[in-house]
Write a structure and sequence with these properties.
With 167 residues, this protein is α+β, with helices and mostly antiparallel strands. It folds into 2 domains: 1-119, Aminopeptidase (3-Layer(aba) Sandwich); 122-167, 2-Layer Sandwich (Alpha-Beta Plaits). Helices cover 26% and strands 37% of the residues. The two termini are 27 Å apart.
Length: 167
């Protein structure tokens, strides 16, 4: 990690990627200047997106941490959490649709959780659409387990959420 909190992740040689795009990712703390780009990706990914003002408000909280992921200068993902003592609620996880299932979300969340551990976070929770099998599988690989259902949590369309906690 360099002095600005940025982390170039050249974990794999390009010849070894075989469909992954994990090499050459730049993961950094989100800045206010990135919010318009983040909000654009949010609108592309979610049916009930956060506004720019919502992101700015969250970003200004000392209890929040948001990361962005760039590849070749392009914003391809972001995630964040809200901390409460030694726990954190993962609030947003988004990856550009054409780059899903290629390691971006996994690497981004690993970095988020590593930075959270540096802040004293021991456990994480999140909600995920019940129908989002790919995300549930990713979260399980990262140590989350389903602990319940939050009925009709999501809108557009109405759907229940799976409540997950790290084990």
């Amino acid at each position: 990690m360099n002095e600005k909190g940025k982390n170039n992740i050249p974990e794999k040689d390009n010849a070894d990627l075989q469909g992954n795009c994990e090499a050459d990712l730049l993961i950094a703390e989100m800045t206010p200047e990135e919010i318009p780009e983040v909000a654009t990706l949010e609108r592309q990914v979610f049916s009930a997106p956060w506004s720019e003002a919502g992101f700015l408000s969250s970003l200004q909280s000392p209890d929040a941490l948001y990361l962005t992921v760039r590849q070749d200068g392009r914003l391809i993902g972001y995630c964040g959490f809200l901390q409460s003592l030694d726990e954190a609620d993962v609030m947003n996880v988004a990856v550009a649709s054409e780059l899903r299932n290629r390691g971006v979300g996994r690497r981004m969340l690993q970095e988020l959780m590593a930075r959270g551990r540096q802040r004293g976070i021991l456990r994480y929770t999140l909600e995920v659409r019940q129908s989002n099998a790919a995300a549930i599988h990713l979260y399980e690989k990262l140590g989350f387990a389903s602990v319940g259902i939050r009925k009709d949590f999501y809108e557009k369309p109405t759907e229940s959420a799976v409540i997950m906690w790290t084990t």
